[in-house]
TrEMBL record:
The chain crosses the membrane at residues 16-34. This is TIGR03943 family putative permease subunit. Keywords: Membrane, Transmembrane, Transmembrane helix. InterPro entries: DUF1980, DUF1980_C. Residues 138-225 form the DUF1980 domain.
Length: 228
């Protein structure tokens, strides 16, 4: 199994995907083996029980193509295997409403002394908006995500957070200032310093702002989501 499954579900669900795939494959092999054996022995297949006899008065059409139509159900699965859809991106983030669970201003645990600080966008946003100890002040921060844009040339480094799978994804982002916006949906690592704004805990403090020092293009990571 490749890392493509990480576009849709959390890494911890990998064993269940493998198990369910193996079970479905086994069922398909068993059904195929039964059909082959029935064809060789001349015994009626499961789909023939309950039908009128070939020479009966109620038999007026052929059943040769009936069961074979069921194979068309495999086409969507084959299409997904051959052309896997991309991970959720800027469109999903743009559709995310600016609603966040109520949080209270308070102190946060101390940050490591190393610079630059490698933070998730969720942690950066929480500390920027709610940390009364201002632990991000005068610290160099490094954030990684994909590019989304707003009005007036504003752009953001953005990440989607999932609890279970892509269906429950929610967006977290930070506004980037001091650097030109890369192409939308491009993955970047931005290094810079926190730009305080607004009263802690207020809507004016969101989204957090990063004054960029460097913006480096990267390839999309194998696991594009942040865990909740």
């Amino acid at each position: 199994m490749t890392d493509l499954y990480l576009r849709y579900v959390q890494a911890g669900l990998r064993p269940y995907l493998i198990l369910s795939g193996a079970m479905l494959g086994s069922l398909g092999l068993v059904r195929g083996a039964l059909a082959v054996r029935a064809a060789r022995t001349g015994a009626p297949g499961a789909e023939e029980y309950g039908r009128p006899a070939e020479d009966g008065p109620d038999h007026g059409h052929s059943h040769a193509g009936g069961p074979r139509v069921a194979w068309l159900l495999a086409l969507p699965a084959v299409a997904l295997l051959c052309f896997p859809p991309p991970a959720l991106g800027s469109y999903s983030a743009a559709r995310e409403e600016a609603r966040r669970a109520e949080e209270y201003v308070g102190t946060f645990p101390a940050l490591p002394a190393d610079d630059p600080l490698e933070l998730s966008l969720a942690e950066f946003g929480s500390r920027a908006a709610y940390d009364s100890g201002y632990s991000l002040r005068e610290r160099t921060v490094r954030l990684t995500g994909f590019v989304t844009t707003g009005d007036g040339g504003t752009w953001y480094v953005t990440r989607l957070r999932v609890a279970c799978c892509a269906a429950d994804a929610t967006a977290v982002k930070a506004e980037v200032r001091g650097a030109e916006a890369p192409e939308t949906d491009a993955w970047v690592t931005v290094t810079g310093t926190w730009h305080p704004r607004g009263k802690l805990g207020s809507a004016a403090a969101w989204p957090p702002v990063l004054d960029a020092v460097t913006v480096r293009a990267i390839t999309e990571p194998s696991d594009p989501y942040e865990e909740r």
